Amino acid sequence: MIKIMVADDHTMFVDGIDSILNKENDMQVICKCYTGEEVLKQLKEVQPDIILLDINLPGITGIEVSKTVLAEYPEVKILAISMFNEESFVTEILNNGAQGYILKNTGRKELLDAIRTICGGKTYFSKDVTNTIMKSLMKKRMESKGSTKLIPKVSRREKEVLKLIVEEFTTQEIAKELFISLKTVESHRSSLLNKLNARNTAGLVRITMENKILEN
Amino acid sequence: MIKIMVADDHTMFVDGIDSILNKENDMQVICKCYTGEEVLKQLKEVQPDIILLDINLPGITGIEVSKTVLAEYPEVKILAISMFNEESFVTEILNNGAQGYILKNTGRKELLDAIRTICGGKTYFSKDVTNTIMKSLMKKRMESKGSTKLIPKVSRREKEVLKLIVEEFTTQEIAKELFISLKTVESHRSSLLNKLNARNTAGLVRITMENKILEN
DNA sequence: TAGTGATTAGGGGATTACCCCTAGAATCTC
DNA sequence: GAGATTCTAGGGGTAATCCCCTAATCACTA
Question: Integer distance in angstroms from CA B184 to C1' C9?
Answer without folding.
Answer: 6
